[in-house]
Amino acid sequence: MVSMGTAISRRRRTRQAPDVRRAQVLDAAGRVFLERGLAGTTMDDVAQAAGVAKGTVYLYFASKDALVEALGAGLVERVVTRAQRLPDVRPGAFAAQLDRFVSGVVDDMLDYPDLQHLVFHDVPRHGALDEVYGPIASFVAGGLPCGEFRVSDPGVATWFLVEGLHGVLAQAAHEPRPGKRTVREGVVEAARRLLHVTDLASVSDEMT
Known about the structure:
Layout: H1 4-14, H2 18-36, H3 43-50, H4 54-60, H5 64-85, H6 94-111, H7 113-122, H8 133-142, H9 154-172, H10 180-194, H11 203-206
């Protein structure tokens, strides 16, 4: 027989901090949205996937729209974080770092096409995504002295890179597209050509 003290102790051990519980709900929502789509997912579905009561979901998110907005903001944050890591690169590794950034953004967005639409169409154009410009421009400029990138104006090249990614992924939210690997390879090759990377080997060769 389990004593009352033991039962209370077990409940305490399973209690999660609010930020951890919120992240748990968001993770579950992302998985369910990916499986069923935004329209086909209910708050009950999210609660079940997260292993919590429906009221717990509403404790952190007032509606499904609020959940979607939080997930969209999370996608933007992931892109910003990827960009912020770009300048931390050693000579000789600029092309590989470029590949990782571009292919990572493609993977993030194409895994969640409905949220991708939210990010690229409903988020204000001069909002959080603008945070990627500075780190990318510094990264591009850093690759010039060692000859790994060859562009006359890092700022203009950065603008083309960011807007090019924006255009390709925004279009993919509306129309049927080829497999993610095909999109990833095409976008990475375009990015390499934009920055005049000498080695234009396919990203599939670089990352397998």
